[in-house]
Specification:
Helices cover 50% and strands 10% of the residues. The protein is of the alpha+beta class. The protein has three domains: 60 residues, no CATH class; 127 residues, no CATH class; 112 residues, Arc Repressor Mutant, subunit A. Helix 1 packs parallel to helix 3, helix 1 crosses helix 4 and helix 4 crosses helix 8. The longest helix has 19 residues.
């Protein structure tokens, strides 16, 4: 799926990716002593594309950037480093997930959807295999086109997430890479604790099904979404009714999939669609209104924090692109998300 970002794309847009990824690699270039201006020029990137973190750049430019950085730095491990950096740059998103998820199963169901905000480079899919699960990275371009760097970034980031999501770190006994084994795998072995298997038909991390029921770590600090006037209080606002709190939380967890319906929420609550409609009606509530009220209130709360990019907020609220989210936001509040942020 190609997403629109008016004003920062070529005439023939083609596949695109969040400029945040390019900025992440440029920061890495700074830390490695590589001249970022030389890097940008060699990757054929228009600096205008990088002026806003919620903009997009052509995906081939990202591939060129990562390949040039590896060449100029003389370091093939930049993707592994970028994955760890990406993990640390998702603090606000992780706090958000901590606020609305109680177990690893819920958390895991939301992560692939939020990762779609990256752009047109691939998708993460969770596959069950006996008593094991694997988070599998399915790129849109083969390794000979993209290089190993995005694969390394995604797997390194996922390893960091699995280490940190639960009170018990989720064990990863095996990791698959879809590229040939490098001469030096010392950093791989520092980052990934399990067996490393290269030249496989897919890239992915394996971990036990039993981890699905493990509790998620709750993040508590003065800026956390679980603090006073936080995102969780917005989700449950005005609701002393336990049933409505459950409904709201189920809706919020289901929104990032983009396919949330009254039927999916009824299934999550283990009741029929008719029962859900009846119980809402008893409270003078309509399902569609509850969804829109939640989206509106959450959008404002997340934008006020100014920690999560508009693109990611759009996906977290179940919109296919920022344009759809912006249209909805204007209907609720009379201005675009960007104008709302700039007015504060």
């Amino acid at each position: 799926m190609t997403r629109s970002a008016p004003g920062n794309r070529r005439a023939d847009p083609g596949p695109n990716v969040s400029s945040k990824l390019a900025l992440l690699y440029l920061q890495l270039a700074d830390d490695l002593g590589v001249d970022r201006h030389q890097l940008i020029a060699s990757a054929d990137i228009d600096p205008i594309w990088l002026e806003k973190t919620d903009s997009h750049i052509p995906v081939e430019s990202l591939y060129a950037l990562t390949k040039q950085l590896a060449k100029l730095a003389g370091n093939e491990n930049i993707g592994l480093w970028a994955g760890r950096s990406s993990f640390l740059n998702q603090t606000s998103l992780l706090q958000y997930l901590s606020a609305i998820c109680s177990h690893f199963r819920q958390w895991l169901n939301m992560m692939p959807s939020t990762l779609e905000a990256i752009g047109d480079i691939g998708e993460t899919v969770v596959v069950k295999e006996g008593d094991m699960l694997r988070t599998e990275w399915r790129p849109l371009a083969p390794v000979d086109v993209s290089g190993r760097y995005i694969i390394d970034m995604i797997l390194s980031m996922c390893q960091s997430l699995l280490n940190s999501a639960c009170y018990n770190p989720v064990p990863v006994p095996k990791v698959y890479f879809s590229y040939p084994e490098p001469e030096d795998t010392s950093l791989h072995r520092q980052i990934f604790s399990g067996e490393l298997v290269f030249d496989q038909p897919f890239s992915g991390l394996f971990y036990p099904v039993a981890a699905l029921e493990w509790p998620i770590i709750k993040v508590w600090d003065e800026k956390s979404p679980v603090d006073k006037d936080n995102l969780l209080s917005v989700i449950e606002t005005g609701s002393s009714d336990g049933f409505m709190r459950r409904v709201r939380r189920c809706i919020v967890r289901a929104l990032p999939s983009g396919h949330m319906t009254i039927d999916t929420i009824a299934t999550e609550l283990a009741i029929s669609r008719r029962t859900l409609q009846r119980r809402l009606s008893e409270r003078d509530e309509v399902f569609a209104n509850v969804v829109q009220e939640l989206r509106s209130a959450m959008a404002v709360r997340l934008l006020v924090d100014n920690q999560i990019p508009v693109t990611e907020i759009a996906f977290m609220l179940g919109y296919a692109d920022t344009s759809s989210f912006s249209t909805a936001f204007k209907g609720w509040h009379g201005c675009s998300p960007r104008d709302f942020v700039e007015s504060r």
